[in-house]
Amino acid sequence: VCPSRTSAAAARPICSFCQSENLSWQEVAGTGEVHSWVTTHNVYSAAFAELVPYTTVLVRLDEQPDILIPGQFGSNVELHQGLRVRARAQPLTDRIGELSWEADAR
Fold first, then answer.
1. How far apart are CA 18 and CA 74, in angstroms?
2. For residues 83, 52, 70 and 61, what is the CA-based torsion angle, rounded to 10 degrees?
3. How far apart are CA 43 and CA 64, in angstroms?
4. pLDDT tens, 1-60?
5. Residue from 67, 64, 55, 66 nearest 101 by CA
6. SS3 38
């Protein structure tokens, strides 16, 4: 977050608005709304064969609606634009993780 603005900046070394390098990390709730999605039915890579079909969603964060965060959708509910979702982070290794989204029960 840039201290001279009320909005967050994407993770990069300068603020997109004022070019300040005085940035800090800010924890967010991890909630938002589905903006769009696509379901992959074809196996494009053998590494993902077990997952097909899988759905990738773009989510607008509650704290910063102009930032869209992609991730795999992991709920058995019908998708629609505006569906409330919550982020779920899962470690894949000790240094790499995966972000997925699930329907928010609240």
1. 37
2. 20
3. 34
4. 555 655 555 556 777 778 888 888 888 899 999 999 999 999 999 988 998 999 999 999
5. 55
6. strand
